[in-house]
Amino acid sequence: MNQKNIAVVGATGAVGVEILDVLEKRNFPVKSLRLLASSRSVGKPMTFRGETIKVEELTKDSFKGIDIALFSAGASRTREFAQAAVDAGAVVVDNSSAFRMDPSVPLVVPEVNPEDVKKHRGLIANPNCTTIIMVVALKPLYDLSPITRIVVSTYQSASGAGAKGMEELEQQTAAVLAGQPAVPQFFPHPYAFNLFSHNTTIQANGYNEEEMKMVNETRKIMHDAAIRVCPTCVRVPVLRSHSEAISIEQLRKVSVEEARAALAKAPGIKVVDDRENNLFPMPYNSNGQYDILVGRIREDLSCENGLAFFICGDQLLKGAALNTVQIAELLL
After folding, report:
1. pLDDT of res. 186
2. Pairing of strands 269-271, 292-299
3. How far is Cα 102 from Cα 107, in angstroms, rounded to an integer?
4. Cα 115–125–52 angle (5° rounding)?
5. pLDDT of residue 134
6. What element of type H or E holds 139?
7. Which segments of the chain have a pLDDT < 70?
8. Quick one: pLDDT at residue 36?
9. Is the whole-model pTM more than 0.90?
C-alpha cells in the first residue's frame, strides 16, 4: 500500500488528538506526519508511533508535499486554509460545517455512502457528529425499506463542544460536589447536574442550527431529499459519548426481528439489546468504542410502519476522528 504524507490541522484539539490515535491504531500508511495548529501551540511535542513530533504553525504554506490533510480546527480555519491545501495538491477531509452543504463537496459516512468519495474535487466533508452516529444505524434499516420519517431526540455530551466544553463540565461538577455553584464560563447555562437545549442559534422555523444540520445532512448523505426529519437536540452532563432516541417510519412494516438481524450484520454497529437483563446502549459503554451501540429495538406503537430504538456513539471517535480517518482510507 502506498504511504501518504499526512497533515493534521488542529492537532492539539480534542478531535486532533484522537485522529493521531486512530491513525496509529488502524495502521494507516503514514509516510510523514505534519502537525499543524495555531501559534499558541507551536513547538508543543506530540507522540506518534513512539516518535516525538513538534507542532508547527498553520499557514497557507504548510501543505507542500502533503497528500491528505485532515482538518479539525473549526469552520473559519477551514474557509481560510483549505483551498491552500487543495492548491498544493492535497485532498482535504474536513470536520467542520464549512462546506458540508456545498453541492460540489461530498458529505461522507463510509458505512453509508462510500461511493461519494469519488466525486471529490479536492475537498470531502465530515458530517456533524449527531448525524454520523444516527445514519450509521439508519442505513441497514433503510436498505430493508426506505425511511420516510425520522423523529430523533439527542442527548449530547460535552465533547461535542471540544476540550473547553469537557473542562467546564469537569470543573462545574467538582464545584457542585464541593458545595459551590456551577458558574458558566464557556456554556451559556450551568452544565453540571443540568441539561439544556443545544446552545446554537434558533432559526426562524424554531429549530436550532444543530437540529437543522441533522435535517439537511441526513438527506444529503442518504440521497433522499424526501425524508422528513424532526430533531430535538439537548446537551446533557455526559463527558464524551452522544446518545439518541430515534423513531422511524418506513414504506413497509419491518419486523423487530428483521431489523435486529439487519443491524447485527451491518458494519460499524454492535447490537446491545438484552431485554431480560435490561441492558441497552449507554454512553459509559460506548466511550472509546469504534462501533455505534444500538438497542431498545421495538415497534413504534404510534404508527403503522414504525420502529423505535436507542443508540450511543463516541462523539470524538465515530462522530469525528474515526470517520475522518475512514474517509482517508477510502482515498488509498
Report:
1. 97
2. parallel
3. 9
4. 110
5. 98
6. helix 129-144
7. none
8. 98
9. yes
Backbone angles phi, psi at 250, to 5 degrees: -125, 165
Task: Supply φ then ψ for residue 201, to 5 degrees.
Answer: -60, 135
The string of DSSP codes covering 253-288 is ---HHHHHHHHHHSTTEEE--BTTTTB---HHHHTT
Domains defined along the chain, listed by start: 4-127+320-330 (3.40.50.720), 131-315 (3.30.360.10)
C-alpha cell at 244: 439518541
Dihedral angle computed from the Cα positions of residues 217, 218, 223 and 225, in that order, rounded to the nearest 10 degrees: -90
Q: Which residues are the active-site residues?
A: 129, 242
Cβ atoms of 156 and 198 within 8 Å: the answer is yes
User: What's the DSSP call for residue 26?
Assistant: T
Amino acid at site 153: S
pLDDT score, position 213: 98
The position carrying cell 463510509 is 110
Q: Please give the radius of gyration of the chain, using alpha carbons only, rounded to the nearest integer.
A: 20
Closest CA to 117 of 91, 144, 84: 91
